[in-house]
Amino acid sequence: MAQDERSRGPLAGKVALVAGATRGAGRAMAVELCRAGATVYATGRTTRQRLSEVGRAGETIEQTAELAAEAGRDAGGAARAVAVDHLDAEQVRELVARIDREEGVLDILVNDLWGGDRLIGFDKKLWEHDLDDGLRALRLGIDSHLITSACALPLLIRRPGGLLIEVTDGTEEYNRNYREPLFYDLAKAAPLRMARALAEETEPYGTTVVCLTPGWLRSEAMLDTYFKVTEERWRDGCATDPHFAISETPTFVGRAVAALAADPEVARWNGQSLSSGGLAKVYGFTDVDGSAPDAWRYITEVQSAGKPADVTGYR
């Protein structure tokens, strides 16, 4: 076997669309899919020329594509940055038409669309919450997913074996609790139900649909805005909240996506709610520090139970 054939990753020849890949989990998913050899279309609204409403100029879709392309260089991967507003159905249709024209197939679709944190009044009752902000958050967290799936599924189901991953915050079990406020609760419950419904609708086409959540994600905003630390000294954030010790890098959930995409028996998960920590136990991947934080089990058994922070046995 030739060297270039041996070095190709398990997803070489596969085509993926990561919708919402500018930063955080979406960026890591694009990078890890590319590292495994996939051709990745990474979309988002913030470019080097234009800032989205999220207001973080430091992360752009072009940077994501550059990081992904570098990660996939020796595995057959490639990355393409495409500026798309996924609330604009025409832009999404044009994106899908481009993928069809250039690749003729779509194997993996990841809906990691959100960007609504700044709109959520976490201490507000429904009647106290800014209504326009709340409805905009639902547009960003629900409508964007529906529009993208409606436009992309005809290409994804064209041949058996397609994989659609809805991304949310919280497992189905944990989200039976109220994730206040109401607008956030709805936005994060909806992808779970979408995955269950689309698993039913697409099963005759040999497509697998799941909902995936990271744990306590050390996104760029979580680090620099909420905890005011860097990734290198993230543990300093435990002084603010000791339970931050269970947190994970975006790479962890990115590796979960790559593991799902490379699993020839991925259909066993159809319609299910999955987590990065839970999948790490099945597939054997770790976070960048070699640990495997099981955040939702920890949050349930330790944090929500009012116990002192102790990650022993949880990462």
Q: Could you describe the 3D structure shown?
A:
- With 315 residues, the protein is α/β, with parallel strands linked by helices.
- The protein contains ten helices and seven strands.
- It has helices at residues 3-6, 24-35, 61-71, 89-103, 131-156, 182-202, 220-226, 250-262, 276-283, 295-303; strands at residues 15-19, 39-44, 78-83, 108-111, 163-167, 208-213, 273-275.
- The protein has a seven-stranded parallel beta sheet with strand order 3-2-1-4-5-6-7, with helices on both faces.
- α2 packs parallel to α3 (61-71).
- The protein is globular, with a radius of gyration of 19 Å.
Low-confidence stretches: none
Order of helices and strands: HEHEHEHEHEHEHHEHH
Could you tell me how far the N terminus lies from the C terminus, measured between alpha carbons in angstroms? 39 Å
Helical segment count: 10
- Strand fraction band? 5-15%
Spatial strand sequence of the major β-sheet: 3-2-1-4-5-6-7
List keywords for this structure.
7 strands; globular; alpha/beta
Can I get a quick summary?
With 315 residues, the protein is α/β, with parallel strands linked by helices. It has 10 helices and 7 strands. The N and C termini lie far apart (39 Å).
